[in-house]
Design goal:
The complex is a heterodimer. In chain A, strand 6 and strand 7 (128-130) form a beta hairpin. Helices cover 20% and strands 26% of the residues of chain A. By secondary structure, chain A is of the alpha+beta class. Chain A starts with a helix and ends in a 26-residue tail after the last strand. Chain A contains two helices and eleven strands, in the order ααβββββββββββ. Chain A has a four-stranded antiparallel β-sheet with strand order 2-3-4-9, with no helix packed on it. Chain A folds into two domains: 4-41; 47-158, Rieske Iron-sulfur Protein, CATH 2.102.10.10. By secondary structure, chain B is mainly alpha-helical. Chain B has helices at residues 2-15, 18-26, 40-59, 69-78, 83-110, 119-142, 146-159, 166-174, 181-213, 230-241, 245-271, 296-304, 307-331, 343-365, 374-377, 390-401, 424-427, 430-439, 453-463, 477-482; strands at residues 28-30, 242-244. Chain B has a two-stranded antiparallel ribbon with strand order 1-2. In chain B, helix 5 (83-110) runs antiparallel to helix 6, helix 12 (296-304) packs across helix 14 (343-365) and helix 16 crosses helix 19 (453-463). The radius of gyration of chain B is 30 Å and the shape is elongated. Classes of the chains: A alpha+beta, B mainly alpha. The interface between A and B is large, with 63 and 73 residues.
Chain lengths: 184, 487
């Protein structure tokens, strides 16, 4: 039989032991969580938001929309081909450009440009966009995602940023048309 | 013989497991549960075992790196002795596992096995279903091809719609700003360590609960479950009309499990491994990503929902479905077990089966997607061109060149996104046709900017010829009356 004294001392020691382990656990949890959440809490203005050249301007003739690709600045060797990102460059009038993300604004499938009908079409769920990236028909609720761009020394530069999804900070909203045609 | 017995005794003196194992094996189960209806749980366990073994075998050679994974799958398929067979076993095993888990769930639901006192067994089972689907999705990602790459993009796009937290969830999912090496590595960790570890723990819990609470008796119409009396009634049943689990009930389980393993092996040999399809190179945009068959229904739902309902349905739908599944044993924990007295339960299953089947079937030919090469690959049927004027033929040319064929079928070929046009002249007047082409609407883009007046005139002249022989094209009634022309 154990005396009440004995019991309380043992109980006290066990509680202290639990507390000790709990405290160590809490201390360890901080670096573990920071490691796990590193893709979220890293600095937003990381290197991949700096300007990156897509190519010389003469690669993109006026009035045309062309596919081009760039190597994402965040790429490391284990990324392989997945870091080669395509995008559509539209040269409006040699002064104004539009650089569209390849990802459909609906669920991210790769949109294709059809110059004959002047439409971007998505193979997944049938989204379609006009040549200026605004929504034409189908499930997308908005126009194509557009990169910020600038022209320097005869080159077209963009800010690659993150893969555009509806909520991503780098996905700039372009003129949304809710099913209304731009003219007609 | 004596030596084997002595070795057995030596181990048992130390482990002391022979008595509990024998008691477990010989525990009485209701006689009627020795039925072909009760074999799906054990079959799911068997297939899970196959997945663990074949998964470990694949991990010997698979390289979980975005730059190497696709090549290592090619090597498994073509260079390693019987690598294709192990991949095929694992792929077909996953398909069978999902099917068997779903059948098991339907059987448990229809037999009322989730009712008191087996509520927790059902809840653990629902969690096991979620983990199985998680294994299916992460496994599809590890087959790192075009479908996997764009499937990840779809997963990220869905996650990004979560209010406030969306972009952070996407970053956590992808492990970086784009789909790449970090993404594949974390899906590898999920598929190989996190989810299987939880699966093993929860399968153990599931089995423990089945042993502690006994196998659900065969439901008899009129035999009502009541919390106060059920446990004693069940023990009375197993005492008076029970048989030992081994060998009484296990024989059918063994045969069915063996049959399923054989079926998986036959499918693996006959159909071979799944993919991989094209390289996971996002610059190859000539692709039409499709999910594996168990997510095809979701692909259809995402295409058919009105845009405004999509985000709420995607974010709230799964929460409601999960809540309903988890609440089920608490809402109807007592009462009738027999499906013959539970018409709503039977109708629910039928409705779900028909809905899932229909969506899966629709997703198989995806009528909502434009046929991207119909404009260059599908000619206009010859009978629509014979004896036509130059203007009408020029219209047919416009029809092809402007990719109308990608969304509109003619003579059964072409896209199904818009209506078939074989009798469009009967349905729309020339004015309505011009308006529809130029302004679009009703899910059709406006072509006003991309068609010259001459092209529009030619196109509408061609469309005006598309009517069944002997049926006149539509004419506007008001103008016909005004000009005194007979319609």
């Amino acid at each position: 039989m154990t005396s009440p004294d004995d019991l309380s001392r043992r109980g006290m020691l066990m509680k202290l032991g639990l507390l000790f382990n709990g405290a160590i656990g809490a201390v360890l949890a901080v670096p573990i969580l920071r490691y796990l959440l590193s893709p979220v809490i890293r600095q937003r203005n990381a290197g991949y938001q700096s300007w990156l050249a897509l190519g010389q301007l003469d690669q993109f003739p006026a009035g045309q929309t062309r596919l081009t690709t760039y190597r994402h600045p965040s790429a490391n060797p284990s990324d392989g081909e997945t870091a080669n990102i395509p995008c559509w460059v539209r040269n409006v009038d040699d002064k104004t450009f539009q650089v569209f993300a390849i990802n459909c604004a609906h669920l991210g499938c790769p949109v294709r440009w059809f110059p004959q009908s002047g439409l971007f079409m998505c193979p997944c769920h049938g989204g379609a966009y006009y040549e200026d990236g605004s929504r034409a028909s189908g499930p997308p609720e908005r126009g194509l995602f557009e990169y910020h761009y600038k022209i320097e020394h005869g080159k077209l530069l963009i800010q690659p940023g993150e893969m555009p999804t509806a909520g991503a900070p780098t996905a700039r909203l372009i003129n949304i048309s809710l099913g209304r045609p731009p003219c007609a | 013989m004596r030596l084997i017995k002595n070795v057995g005794v030596w181990f048992d003196q130390r482990l002391q497991l022979s008595t509990p194992i024998r008691e477990t094996m010989e525990h009485p189960v209701p006689r009627r549960t020795a039925s072909w209806a009760y074999v799906f749980g054990s079959a799911a366990l068997t297939v899970f075992g196959l997945q663990v073994v074949t998964g470990i075998l694949l991990a010997l050679l698979y390289v979980p790196s975005a730059g190497e994974a696709w090549n290592s799958l090619q090597i498994l398929n073509h260079q390693v002795t019987l690598g294709w067979f192990i991949r095929a076993l694992h792929g077909w095993g996953s398909n069978f596992m999902i099917a068997i888990v779903l059948i098991h769930m339907v059987q448990v639901f229809l037999f009322g096995a989730y009712k008191f006192p087996r509520e927790l067994t059902w809840i653990v089972g629902v969690l096991l279903l979620l983990m199985t689907l998680g294994m299916a999705f992460t496994g599809q990602v590890l087959r790192f091809d075009q479908d996997a790459y764009w499937g990840l993009g779809i997963g990220a796009s869905i996650s990004s719609r979560v209010p406030v937290l969306g972009p952070r969830i996407v970053s956590l999912l992808l492990g970086g700003p784009i789909i790449g090496g970090a993404t594949l590595s974390r899906f590898f960790a999920l598929h190989v360590f996190v989810i299987p570890g939880s699966l093993i723990a929860f399968v153990g819990l599931h089995l423990l609960l089945v042993l502690k609470l006994g196998i659900n008796e065969w439901p008899m119409p009129g035999r009502i479950v009541r919390r106060a009396t059920y446990v004693s009634e069940y023990h009375e049943l197993t005492r008076t009309d029970g048989i030992p689990f081994v060998p009484g009930a296990v024989a059918k389980d063994l045969f069915f499990s063996g049959f399923i393993l054989l079926s998986i092996a036959v499918c693996a040999v006959y159909f071979g491994p799944f993919g991989p399809s094209g390289q996971p190179d996002p610059t190859i945009i000539q692709t039409a990503p499709r999910p594996d068959y168990f997510f095809l229904w979701l692909y259809a739902v995402l295409s058919l929902l009105p845009p405004s309902l999509e985000t709420p349905a995607l974010l709230i739908g799964p929460v409601i479905a999960l809540a309903v599944l988890l609440a089920l044993p608490f809402v109807s924990g007592e009462g009738e077990k027999s499906w013959t007295r539970r018409p709503i339960a039977v109708l629910t299953i039928l409705l779900l089966a028909v809905a899932l089947g229909t969506f899966t079937h629709l997703a198989d030919y995806a009528p909502w997607s434009p046929v991207m090469d119909a404009w260059s690959g599908e000619p206009i049927p010859a009978q629509y061109l014979k004896g036509r004027t130059a203007l009408e033929r020029h219209g047919a040319l416009v029809f092809q060149a402007k990719q109308c064929h990608n969304c509109h079928a003619l003579g059964g070929a072409g896209g199904d996104r818009g209506p078939e046009l074989d009798r469009i002249a009967v349905e729309l007047t020339p004015d309505q046709l011009i308006r529809q082409v130029i302004q679009g609407g009703g899910n059709m883009p406006a072509y006003g900017k991309n068609l010259s007046p001459a092209e529009t005139t030619a196109l509408v002249a061609f469309l005006e010829t598309l009517h069944p022989a002997g049926q006149a094209p539509a004419r506007e009634a008001s103008s016909a009356a005004r000009f005194g022309v007979r319609p």
